[in-house]
Amino acid sequence: QGQLVESGGGLVQAGDSLRLSCAASGRTFTSYMGWFRQAPGKEREFVAAINWSGGSTYYADSVKGRFTISRDNGKKSVYLQMNSLKPEDTAVYYCAAGSGFMKYDYWGQGTQVTVSS
Question: Each residue's pLDDT tens digit in the chain (117 positions)?
Fold first, then answer.
């Protein structure tokens, strides 16, 4: 069936940048790929999504203008470029794959992003 594996998380300071990667295998590289995050004590929330061609992208208001989602279908990978990071961006970031904009069937294990002030 395959899996999604995230990488690129870490500890950074406010204002820094990070680039998350998600490598897919098997059936998990689907038409819609997305990123979600979950902060301590909070529910998982949507961050960004992208369709197969990359022509349509979607962002949460809290990250619009700072984060950019992209994908490389040849490498079965999706990326999240995060700029101007803020302490409130601290969370575990999850890669997701599915057949629709908010219809995700596969999830990665997550990668921790910590932004210090």
Answer: 789 999 999 999 999 999 999 999 988 888 899 999 999 999 999 999 999 999 999 999 999 999 999 999 999 999 999 999 999 999 999 999 998 888 999 999 999 999 999
State the pairing for strand pair 10-13/111-116: parallel
C-beta of residue 84 within 8 angstroms of C-beta of residue 15: yes
Distance CA 40, CA 104 (A): 22
Length of the chain: 117
Tokens for 86? 């803020």
CB 52 within 8 A of CB 32: yes
